[in-house]
Structure formats: structure tokens, C-alpha cells
Fold:
Amino acid sequence: MINQSALRAMATASAVALAFGLALSASAQTAQDEKSECQRLYGQWSKYNGTSSYSKEMDADMALEDCNKGNTAAGIAELKEVLNRGKIPLPESETAATPETRPSTH
Structure:
């Protein structure tokens, strides 16, 4: 028979494992969201400027490289700065997009 302290220890270990798993999942989702944000901002820049190959404007490419290396906070900040400097509007956030309206079924 398992004593009460062993049950508590197992419950505590289970709670810690669950919390750790949830934290890792949230962290992975956040990292993926940040990489998506980098791609979205770079896409906006590309839409207005094309590719930066052979141009003086390498900041967007360097910012995207930061994102690809995992330094997403710096990459996002630099991409926003590049867009602002070029007077390019920031793209609407995906959550701010207007939902599609459906025709009435009446």
C-alpha cells in the first residue's frame, strides 16, 4: 500500500511535469508566432521594395536573418523600423482582420 507522503510526492511531480510541459508548449507557440510575424513584416517590405539583392537596403535582410537565428525580438523591431523609415504601412495584424460576412440564410 502507498503511504500518504508518497502520493503527495507523486501528485507534486505530476503537477510540475504538467506545468513544465504547458510552459514549453506556450514557449514553442510564441516562438512560432514571432517567426510568422517576421515573415509577415518582411513580406510587407518585399511587397513595396521587391528583393533587396544588389540594393543598399540590406537592413530588412539582416533583420530577417536575426529572426531565422532565433533573435526574433530584435528582428521584429528592426523590420518595423525599416518599414517606418520607408514610410511603408505596417501590415494589419492577423487578429485585426475583419471576419468574412456570410450571406443571410433567411
